[in-house]
Amino acid sequence: MIQDRYHIGSGTVQLILKRYNASGFALEQLKSMEPPEVEMLFYPPENLQRKDIQLPEFQHYFNRIHSKGSKVNVSYCWMEYKQEHPDGYEQSQFYELYNRFVEQNFGKRDVKMAVERVPGEKMYIDWVGDQPELLMDPETGEIRKVHLFVTTMGLSSYIYAEAFLDEKLQSFSTGTVHALQFYEGIPKYLVPDNLKAAVTKHTKDELILQSAYSDLEDFYDTIVLPPPPRKPKGKPTVENHVRYLETHLVEKLKENIYISLEELNADIQKIVATLNSRKFQNKNYSRADAFVKYDKPCMKPLPGGCFTVCDYKTVTRIPDNYHIEYDDHYYSVVYTHCGKPAIIKATASEIRICDGYNRLICKHKRSYKDFPKYITEDSHMRPEHLYYKEVNEKDGAYYRRWASVFGPNMEECIDRLLKASKHEEQAYNACAGLLHTVKEMPHGIVEETARQCIQMNSCRYKTFKQVLSRMQSNPISPGVLPEHENIRGKGFYK
Fold first, then answer.
1. Cβ(191)–Cβ(163) under 8 Å?
2. Among the listed ranges 131-145, 219-233, 282-296, 414-428, which one has the minimum average pLDDT value?
3. Where exactly are the structural domains of the chain?
4. Protein fold of 122-298
5. pLDDT tens column, 178-223
């Protein structure tokens, strides 16, 4: 009857009855006991332990895993144990025995929230905490540390890793771009850690991204969404894989010394490819399989072109001369932005200047010549500054051509004004001032004024202004019509 009701074999029924009779407990006593006590009575932990091999030294492994600065995990301990005892426990038994040891001696582990991961939704980004000394300078022999950039896809845990010389903004942005190219797609969210290279400010009320990362977000049409500060469980996938890579990637890399980043990254790609193709525990598929099947179809395609990583420079206050310095050159902005903050984004060919909110103000072609130092756009200048700039850029021929528009008298007057100075350049200001004064006036008045100045043999700025003023206050009389017989007169209409 027991076999039919619970669908178990006769051997199992006989074993349970045997253990029940051997326990010496009555059925009522068993009913009053706690379920774990009953379970331990009928299924003791020793049942899992194989009789032909000694139980592993779990206290030793526990101390190694939890020692300060250790990167060792249970998987690594099992591999080490298996090398020493080829006929020892398999991975699942080893894990079960170790977990029982921890529960019995150190209490039950924390329960965790189940998280439903959406295919192609999130790409997690971080730096590996361990900074191994792997790179040798071939000239000095000095061994340098390298920094390992790592990303994982949220559902498949598909890994990308790359070595850099630092963790600065340019390295972080370049790593992100290379990761997206590696995945050949764009997830809905990029989830970086709250690093200064990506995040300027992140509180409960406000999230401000670094300008470079904000530009990257716009270029790839994705959303940068860092987890709450000091909350590593906000991105458990990459945190777990950082620990995983510290063991299975970094320890492998430490076996060699490299003389170039290219050589190092080539080895990293090989090791990561192996890790991505390794089957999950108790699964018949790998990270690469899961990525191709689930994540990749749900990701957006890459845009045309490639995001250019710029050199960024923050300016707290635009100077009063509305020019911002970069690489020993000074680039103009609209003069109304004086006193406000700005951001310079420099590429090999272009200088972009944005306001404090990362909105584009203007852009210039980047200059590499020693001179001119000041790269100025005319539309950025105050009107009076533009006037003086134009004055300084013109020559005598320019002012003669301008004067000829009004007529021959004005052209001759300007010519005499230029020749009256010891050096022609000394009269440019006077010519510009005079021509700007009359540019909206009727040409007839301007010509008559010039004619009178020529007649007086005084083609000077002051004389011209005086004659012009007199003509404007005493306009020329239209004259009197001659008398003739056809005029009817006022009496005609009475």
1. no
2. 219-233
3. 1-43, 122-298, 311-381, 386-473
4. Nucleotidyltransferase; domain 5 (3.30.420)
5. 999 999 999 999 998 877 767 777 777 677 787 788 889 999 999 9
